[in-house]
Automatic annotation (TrEMBL):
GO terms for molecular function: acyltransferase activity, transferring groups other than amino-acyl groups. InterPro entries: Acyl_CoA_acyltransferase, GNAT_dom, Trichothecene_AcTrans. Keywords: Transferase. Gene3D superfamilies: 3.40.630.30. CDD domains: NAT_SF (cd04301). This is Acetyltransferase. Transmembrane segments: none annotated. The keyword Nucleotide-binding does not apply.
Length: 201
């Protein structure tokens, strides 16, 4: 897949795993599902830095907008199973920094998300977010559009799980459609599955 990046957006390298994790964690500190699942900002940071380093920088594609925004993507066929070492690192971080029961909630959530994941080949948007100080400046759209345009060229759908209702309008404005709500555990806030069909060029 050829991604044409605008000025100010660059492809992240494996050396960028901490920055990817830090930006994403800050963006998700007030996210309802992540707060329910992990319980603490430190656990959220541990999860996103681990997944950036051990999964998305190896199997997917990640992009940075300076130090203000970040996104992590993967082809659907590349993310069906998290590597065992990555899973161990993820669980260790959640056990150390998360609130009581966080490891169990995390494992359960992963199973539920997998069960609800579409089988049709697609690009999976794992995360997109900006630092607090960078919000409202169009960075999210600038990060999202290049991959969506590539999806359109390649006739490939895109999929995401929206964990914050405040973001629904943004995703709809970028062509995503609402599929269904589901819960990753008892008492969890809802996740919303969203799907984007490729647009005609």
């Amino acid at each position: 897949m050829q991604i044409d990046l605008p000025e100010g957006i660059r492809t992240a390298t494996r050396a960028d795993w901490r920055q990817l994790g830090d930006i994403t964690a800050e963006a998700f500190f007030d996210d309802p599902v992540n707060r329910w699942m992990f319980g603490t900002p430190r656990a959220i940071r541990s999860v996103f830095t681990t997944l950036a380093r051990d999964v998305y920088l190896k199997r997917g594609m990640c992009f940075l907008a300076g130090d203000g925004g970040a996104t992590m993507w993967c082809r659907s066929e590349s993310i069906r199973a998290i590597p065992p070492l990555a899973m161990l690192g993820l669980a260790a971080g959640v056990a150390r920094w998360g609130s009581k029961g966080a490891v169990g909630r995390t494992l359960k959530a992963g199973d539920v998300m997998d069960a609800n994941h579409p089988h049709e080949p697609h690009m999976y948007l794992f995360t997109i977010g900006t630092r607090t100080a960078a919000r409202g400046k169009g960075i999210g759209k600038a990060l999202l559009r290049p991959v969506l345009e590539a999806c359109d060229r390649d006739r490939l759908p895109a999929y995401l799980e929206n964990s914050n209702p405040d973001n629904t309008g943004f995703y709809i404005s970028q062509g995503f459609e609402r599929m269904k709500l589901f819960h990753v555990g008892d008492g969890a806030p809802p996740l919303e599955a969203m799907w984007r069909k490729p647009k005609a060029l």
